[in-house]
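comment on this one:
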Amino acid sequence: MEQALTLDPINEAAAAAVIRLLTGLGRRDEARLRAQHLNAHLASLDLEPTPETQAVLRQLRTCRRS
């Protein structure tokens, strides 16, 4: 998935999967960094994350508070 994101940094499905995996492994800082990169790439194209990606990002923010 990391290779896919290197080739296509706005591949939301791959980014969301990586964020979920990193969160599940307890690597929340890396997951947050990946989320920031995805949001920056999408914003540079004036795009919003899909509802599915937004759900993953909300889950990551919820983990931050825990």
